[in-house]
């Protein structure tokens, strides 16, 4: 059985870069890695609706914190079977965002903390009701919100990818960072490890920790 490792953090924190670096390092060491990123925009109709709502589609859907969170959750529910198959076939399954993203962004939008009603609701929906696979470890890539924002801005200029309405909201990103800190502190759903994302992470050390 492989280990389920989740990378969490703000938009522009460096999650995709870390996932690529870790994947390469684990493969160099002879391990096998499956990789997925949520939302699965090109693979799931719920994620497709998320993307449309994030860019102003579907009337007031994007304004509904719970409505959006249900769509993100359904994307993961539909991925659960494939995740279990990947866990059976690989040493490591590496996820770029997972359930904690729903908890952190929703709570931040509602001005709640890691111990608030929204985080409890996400637990009831995704963990208890949908029973998606539990991570072995959640990595919080910690960077100050202004650093994450400037990286995301830079990426927007150098790649085709455009930031959505939430990604451009700096006070939301600040609050979201605080909820993530709270989730990591209480060890929400699994053990967490906080990584300093201001520097280039030590891929070799992390890969060794992940593969045990
Ligand atoms: N440790 C780092 N130091 C400096 N820049 C970084 C670092 N990690 C990622 N970046 C850059 O920041 C931008 C956002 O990184 P990315 O991995 O796409 O973030 P995320 O997936 O968290 O949104 C990219 O242009 C990437 O090259
Ligand atoms: C996966 C997930 C993301 N989100 C938020 C975080 C981001 O602001 C937004 C989009 O996710 P993101 O990973 O930034 O996708 P991309 O960079 O490819 O657009 O959705 C949730 O609120 N809940 C979730 O379950």
General description of the model:
The protein is of the alpha/beta class and 212 residues long. The protein has one domain (3-211): Rossmann fold. It contains eight helices and five strands; from the N terminus they run E-H-E-H-H-E-H-H-E-H-H-E-H. It has a five-stranded parallel sheet, with helices on both faces. Helix 2 (45-54) packs across helix 3 (65-89) and helix 4 (99-109) crosses helix 7 (170-186). The longest helix is centred in the middle third of the chain and has 25 residues, at 65-89. The protein is globular, with a radius of gyration of 16 Å. The two termini are 13 Å apart. The mean pLDDT is 95. Bound molecules: adenosine-5'-diphosphate and thymidine-5'-diphosphate. Thymidine-5'-diphosphate is lined by residues 11, 38-39, 72, 97, 101-102, 105, 166-167. Belongs to the thymidylate kinase family. Its EC number is 2.7.4.9. It catalyses: dTMP + ATP = dTDP + ADP. GO terms for molecular function: ATP binding; dTMP kinase activity. Pfam families: Thymidylate_kin.
Mind sketching the topology for me?
Layout: E1 3-8, H1 15-28, E2 33-37, H2 45-54, H3 65-89, E3 92-96, H4 99-109, H5 117-129, E4 137-142, H6 145-158, H7 170-186, E5 192-196, H8 203-211
Parallel strand pairs: 1-3, 1-4, 2-3, 4-5
Low-confidence stretches: none
Tell me the name of the CATH class. Answer: Alpha Beta
CATH architecture: 3-Layer(aba) Sandwich
Question: How many beta-strand elements?
Answer: 5
CATH superfamily label: P-loop containing nucleotide triphosphate hydrolases
Structural class: alpha/beta
Q: How would you spell out the order of helices and strands?
A: EHEHHEHHEHHEH
Number of helices: 8
Function: Phosphorylation of dTMP to form dTDP in both de novo and salvage pathways of dTTP synthesis.
GO molecular function: ATP binding; dTMP kinase activity
EC number: 2.7.4.9
Enzyme class: transferase
């Amino acid at each position: 059985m492989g280990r389920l490792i989740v990378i969490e953090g703000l938009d522009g924190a460096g999650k995709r870069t870390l996932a690529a670096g870790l994947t390469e390092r684990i493969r160099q060491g002879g391990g096998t890695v499956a990789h997925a990123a949520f939302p699965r925009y090109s693979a799931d109709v719920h994620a497709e609706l998320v993307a449309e709502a994030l860019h102003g589609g579907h009337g007031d859907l994007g304004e509904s914190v719970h409505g959006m969170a249900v769509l993100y959750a359904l994307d993961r529910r539909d991925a659960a079977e494939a995740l279990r198959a990947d866990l059976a076939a690989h040493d490591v399954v590496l996820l770029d965002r997972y359930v904690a993203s729903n908890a952190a962004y929703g709570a931040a939008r509602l001005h709640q903390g890691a111990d608030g009603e929204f985080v409890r609701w996400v637990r009831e929906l995704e963990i208890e009701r949908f029973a998606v696979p539990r991570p072995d470890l959640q990595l919080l890539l910690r960077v100050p919100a202004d650093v994450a924002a400037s990286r995301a801005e830079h990426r927007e200029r150098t790649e085709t990818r455009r930031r959505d309405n939430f990604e451009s909201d700096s006070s939301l990103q600040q609050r979201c960072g605080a909820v993530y800190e709270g989730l990591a502190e209480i060890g929400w759903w699994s053990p967490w490890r906080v990584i300093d994302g201001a520097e280039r992470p030590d891929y070799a050390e992390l890969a060794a920790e992940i593969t045990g």
